């Protein structure tokens, strides 16, 4: 059994009320460990540890903070295999993905922010003619809360924690209760790297108990959250009246817009990835595919042929391209959408069935699914499915596709495939999303800002934006 404990003040603790949750392995549907369902008291202990650590950590030199964060990064790299196996087991994602993307990115998050903090600067304004100078101080907030989801567990957990720590805050963090294992292992790495006790505290449990205690805590002054839109709205409702700083990275229903003048092979291969990477469980996946009418039939044939070649299998099999979905309830939710698609007149071009993997019959496997939709307003084209399911439909003009692309409540990312520069500029200006990729997908430069508009969230992460979020700005005006 892989039993997990809370990491508070540098030590590992059982939950005070001795409440535990089962942790399921998506690959075989079996319980393989227990995790704390931490209460308000556990969160309070984490807060007290963080508060005590804050005066010293906030005054630790940037060079020393940087050194420790980079050490954590190096230790994650040194433990790549162990972390990748844990992530794959806990989440159901292919081991190859965990090894090539998730864990290296978690290490990059620490390295990036360890370096970024040494380059972070603030503004000054000389008030010419008034004999005065204004300068901005960027001070750490204090104790901050970081809450992350199950789809990219350590990758997104560290995407929040690393900038928070780099900026001099102390942290109370909660990973998803569905995928807690690598966050638990991170505690050991932090101790080994010499992160002082109490600077980072990791509490495990349900959103409705542990997460709720974090967002309600009167002295946790900022919340950085990634997850579902409904949860984000709830967090805003609780935290905003307490005047907490909030960064909310929420869901997406991202358009992938394909024009006939694109580089076809590159587009086809990337569209396969943007549709089904991580079993389609990435908020950035291009789940609505719009194809210019002149190449629609060709695309449909070629795309479906490629999708049928994807190999659904056990996550530890290196030949697997599609692993297990994260949980049974999530598999059922995705299956419900496939049934909704049928009832809405959708044409199932491939997939749509659960997959039985030999010797792992109770795992949560699903065929990658492509649905040709009768119109852009049907539910499967409007609601976030967050699984290996994409919709496709043709379009006739730039104006039409732009209108359809923007006619959803979300606005996280959009992908555009074209070689027409003027069209690229026109559409990039008008697409309602926080991120536009042109002739690529998920090309990440950690210096760039990251986040969405509309129901996809509030605020921006990434680069100096994250360091700005995790600091309070103060203007000082000196007359001389
Ligand atoms: N990154 C994304 O865009 C993600 C989107 N989703 C979407 O959300 C749907 C629901 O998935 P869930 O696992 O239920 O995501 P969720 O939004 O409930 O969970 C994300 C995190 O928030 C925490 N949380 C939940 N309720 C909370 C509360 N009251 N206070 C504080 N923290 C709370 C959870 O414990 C978890 O750590 C998915 O089917 C998917 O459509 C889910 C995960 C990630
Ligand atoms: O920062 C990234 O590269 C990816 C972020 C992805 C999410 O926030 C998500 O899937 O929720």
Short précis:
Helices cover 41% and strands 21% of the residues. It is an alpha/beta fold and 480 residues long.
Q: How would you sum up this structure, described in words?
A:
The chain is α/β, with parallel strands linked by helices. Helices cover 41% and strands 21% of the residues. It is built from 15 helices and 22 strands. It has helices at 40-58, 62-78, 80-91, 95-119, 153-166, 181-193, 207-216, 229-239, 264-276, 293-309, 328-343, 379-382, 398-406, 421-430, 463-469, and strands at residues 6-8, 11-13, 20-25, 30-36, 124-127, 132-140, 143-147, 170-174, 200-202, 222-226, 245-249, 255-258, 288-292, 347-350, 369-372, 389-395, 410-411, 413-417, 435-438, 453-454, 457-458, 471-479. Strands 14-15-16-13-12-18-19 form a 7-stranded mixed sheet, with helices on both faces. The protein has a 6-stranded mixed sheet with strand order 9-8-7-10-11-21, with helices on both faces. The chain has a 3-stranded antiparallel sheet with strand order 5-6-22. Strand 18 (413-417), helix 14 and strand 19 (435-438) form a beta-alpha-beta unit. Helix 1 (40-58) crosses helix 7 (207-216), helix 2 (62-78) packs across helix 6 (181-193) and helix 3 crosses helix 4 (95-119). The longest helix is centred in the first third of the chain and has 25 residues, at 95-119. The termini are far apart. The model has no long low-confidence stretch (mean pLDDT 98). The structure holds 1,4-dihydronicotinamide adenine dinucleotide (NAI) and the ligand O=C(O)/C=C/C=C(\O)C(=O)O. 1,4-dihydronicotinamide adenine dinucleotide is lined by residues 147-151, 174, 176-177, 206-208, 211-212, 215, 226-228, 231, 234-235, 250-251, 283, 330, 333, 384, 386. 1,4-dihydronicotinamide adenine dinucleotide binds at residues 147-151, 174, 176-177, 206-208, 211-212, 215, 226-228, 231, 234-235, 250-251, 283, 330, 333, 384, 386.
